[in-house]
Amino acid sequence: MAHLAETLGTQRHVGRFSGLMAQFTDRLERRRVYNKTYSELAQLSTRELTDLGICRSMISRLAHEAAYGK
């Protein structure tokens, strides 16, 4: 009986750890998307951004929306 309780307790910890790892991985991936989008837009010239209808001041917001949604 003690072994069963110990096993169930361990499974709960593993479940929590898996959840935390999934959350961490999701946040890391979203941050990568943000950084990549920001970097790519920031490298464009003002003329190229204007052609796309983007002001340079919008880059941060657009990168945030690409990574996290509206």
Q: What is the typical, i.e. mean, pLDDT? A: 88
**How far apart, in Å, are the first and last alpha carbons?**
50 Å
Q: List the total number of helices.
A: 3
Shape assignment = rod-shaped
Summed up, what is this model?
It contains 3 helices and no strands.
Model description:
This protein has 70 residues and is mainly α. The chain has one domain. It has 3 helices and no strands. Helix 1 (2-42) runs antiparallel to helix 3.
Key features of this structure:
mainly alpha
Map the helices and strands:
Layout: H1 2-42, H2 46-51, H3 59-68
Helix pairs in contact: 1-3
